[in-house]
Amino acid sequence: MTSDPSTPSLLENWRYSIQRYFKRELIPLLADLRLAILLLLVIALFSVTGTVIEQGQPLSFYQANYPEHPALFGFLSWKVILTLGLDHVYRTWWFLALLILFGSSLIACTFKRQLPALRWFSRTWNFYTQPRQFQKFALSAEVEQASMSDLIPLLEQRRYRIFQQGDALYAHKGLMGRIGPIVVHIGILVILAGAIFGAMTGFFAQEMVPSGQTFQVRNIVDAGPWAAAQIPKDWSVKVNRFWIDYTPDGTIDQFYSDLSVLDRNHTEVDRQTIHVNKPLRYKGVTFYQADWGIAGIRFRLNNSPVLELPMGLLNTGGAGRLWGTWLPTKPDLSEGLSVIAKDLQGTLLLYDMQGRLVSTVRSGMSTEINGVTLSIVDVIGSTGLQIKADPGIPVVYTGFALLMVGVMMSYISHSQIWALQTQDGFYIGGKTNRAQVAFEREMLAILEQLDQQMAASSPASLEQSLV
């Protein structure tokens, strides 16, 4: 049994149904302005959430600041935050899906509304050849004894682009005003593309590095699925020196890090001193000065070589930041001192094993403790760096530039004027997409000048000029 070749196959029917669904249902839905506004509001809401809730923090941070009992607002606990991905909003699948859906809505609106409007505009270049066609304009007139030669100079003075075909004329200006909304849509699409690209390929890291040490970026806090190519592997950074400038009253004025970028052969290829609001940028990776700490102390006991001990951040219950260590004064560790520091100004507090303050000492000074001469050589600072890479930023900036240009273009009024000269009279009409009052004044000025020209060239005026 053979099938009738005239009968459409199941595959063809399925393909036709899909095309019909996209054309008649899905695309009109995506092109709906109400859907675009709703998506924009939802994206803005979750963007605010990502700003309010700290991003990329460790689990302990959310457990401490967003406990289950009592939960913030009655529901917002650390479990809810981690389940919904609110600790990394901008990289969650649902936020990226919202961006893609919003971009699809803009694309559908562009192709269904904006581009057809331009095609309609190209059809308006058809010249009007019947007087009745001018009746549809809200602003039109019939001027007796006027001619094209009278109208054309008036339009040229107002920078209209003029097209003439026989006794019909078409003129327009401000075409940029019609293209502006399309440029705005393109700018928003470029911004969305840059945001998605940056979320997929960027990373965020934090490092606490003592002065004098070299490090590679390893402490990745948040990263996109394609961020491996952005993480530095063939170069490293050395902290040559970290220091803090203090004000006369002892508060921090600014802190600085002298950084060197080293290639795989440990050759310096770049060197900069960074501080807050002045980062180091190298190969798409940006190093921000974000925090500081005390890494350790260098000291001597009597005439010993310079020794070094690390210092750790103490738990003060929110009463401020203090760093401390235990310094032995006997080889068998039977006696020692607790050393406390609160800043890099060099003042150390020394406590005995009973917790009593026995002395204070500064860098470069010595003191006698337990029969031992303790000399403080240096207090070693550590710099806290935030490290980011976002390849989508140049794309986003390009999109913002297009968006601003498109917005400025959209404020330009697009004005159109048609004219027709027949044996019965001279017809003129026009319209504009915005600034209606200004366009009406312009049309009235043109009509008034045409009347003045007609009056100046009337037989009575000609007879008076001959006399």
Can you describe this structure?
Strand 2 (161-165) and strand 3 form a beta hairpin. The chain starts with 9 loop residues before the first helix and ends with a helix. With 467 residues, it is an alpha+beta fold. Strands 4, 6, 10, 11, 12, 18 and 19 form a seven-stranded antiparallel beta sheet that branches. Strands 1-21-20-3-2 form a five-stranded antiparallel beta sheet, with helices on one face. The chain has helices spanning 10-30, 33-52, 59-65, 78-84, 93-123, 148-157, 176-201, 393-410, 436-456, 459-466; strands at 139-143, 161-165, 168-173, 203-210, 214-215, 220-223, 235-246, 252-263, 268-275, 280-282, 285-301, 307-310, 312-313, 323-328, 336-341, 348-351, 357-361, 366-369, 372-389, 415-421, 426-432. The longest helix has 31 residues, at 93-123. It has ten helices and 21 strands. It has three domains: 12-114, no CATH class; 124-174 and 413-466, TATA-Binding Protein, CATH 3.30.310; 203-389, no CATH class.
Question: Over all CA atoms, what is the radius of gyration?
Answer: 38 Å
The assigned structural class equals: alpha+beta
Principal-axis shape: elongated
Number of DSSP E strands = 21
Portion of residues in beta strands equals 25-35%
**For the terminal residues, how far apart are their CA atoms?**
104 Å
Largest sheet: 7 strands, antiparallel
Oligomer: single chain
| Helical residues, percent | 25-40%
Global mean pLDDT: 85
Number of helices: 10
Instruction: Indicate the low-confidence ranges by residue numbers.
Output: 460-467
How many domains make up the 3D coordinates?
3
